[in-house]
Amino acid sequence: MVNLKKTIWLILIIYTIIFPISVIGADTSRSSIVMDLDSGRILYEKNSHQKRLVASTTKILTAITTIEKMDLDKQITVGEEVLKMYGTNIYIEIGEKITIKDLLYGLLLRSGNDAAVALAVAVSGSEENFVKLMNEKAQEIGMKDSIFQNPHGLDEKTKNYSTAYDMALLSQYAYQNKTYREIVGTKKYIVSTGNKTYLWYNRNKLLSSYKYCTGGKNGYTPSAGKTLVTTASKNNLNLTVVTLNDGNIYNTHQYLYEEMFHKYQNYKIIDKNEFYMDQSFYNGTLYLNDSFFYPLSENELDEIKTRVSISNNQAEGQVGNIFIYLGNQKIGDIPIYRKKVTKNISWLSKIRNLFTRKS
Q: Based on the domain organization, do 103 and 188 belong to the same domain?
């Protein structure tokens, strides 16, 4: 006789494998990280330094490399390089004229693989030369465990490997660029070329489903699984989340954001407008150009310490630093400057100088 209980359990296991349950309130990724975009502080991580295929999140590096190298209003003519592309495309045609900026929207909103190779050729003349620029930029950013072999993320022939940590560094770097932020934060984009009109909706679903999301890029290949890099901002706390190989990318990202927004606040530790110390030696000429912010949990507030170092020999310019520590770990420093002191000359001294001046 067939064991009915075992049969039911077997059916449930098979069903779960084929139709995975969407888990809310958990990190279901193989690798993940949450990083503060402003300070670079890591607020959460799981296997963040494991190398993995990153699929179309590659296109963040493709985009920032292009943005920094090209005039975005330049119009290019699409070449035969687009014919070899498959998967997600924007379906531009050979001979079609389109601007670099419009291609970037097609790259980041619709994940156009054809847009990726068209940009590569426009920037460097060939995909191979562009990949060299991508890897140079990755090393400049500090992505030490990353290697890129193509600008699109497809991985049947060539493969792009990175880590959650490295992709967070890339997200942090790209976020500083206004053009990048504008593009990935766009939900819908319409462009007309001489051939046709395109209507593109952003494939990053978190941008519409989570009100604090400010942008990002998703990706998928069977080998890489689902990948996602996003940014979000709440109460002056700006974060990026990276998840690699996660079947529930959007739930995981929202869960991690909510957890971190609840646990951390962006505290102003040093206020340049309220800077005070005993300045009797400096006649009140010391000042700061910048304030210092840092994400902290409530129980970390008492662990903040500062140390001041000043040179007595410096007449003006930078004369020292305020070093900020969380426990015994240095988390930042702020330069201290001294104003140039102008001596006031009395009117009697000015008259005396007129008569004593050499002719």
A: yes
Confidence of residue 192 (pLDDT cuts 50, 70, 90): very high
- Among residues 210, 216, 250, 244, the alpha carbon closest in space to that of 231 is found at 216
301 CB contacts (<8 Å, ≥6 apart)?
Answer: 267
Task: Return the bridge partners of 98, or none.
Answer: 76
Strand arrangement, sheet containing 42-46: 42-46, 31-36, 237-244, 225-234, 213-221
221-244 residue pLDDT tens: 999 999 999 999 999 999 999 999
Q: Catalogue the active-site residues.
A: 56, 59, 111
* Residue 198 clears pLDDT 50, i.e. is over it: yes
**pTM of the complete model:** 0.86
Other C-beta atoms lying within 10 Å of the C-beta of residue 291? 14
Residue ranges making up the domain that contains 330:
271-338
Q: Amino acid letter at 22?
A: S
CA–CA dist 14, 6 (Å, integer):
12
- Domain with residue 276: its CATH number is 2.30.140
Residue 221 domain-assigned (yes or no): yes
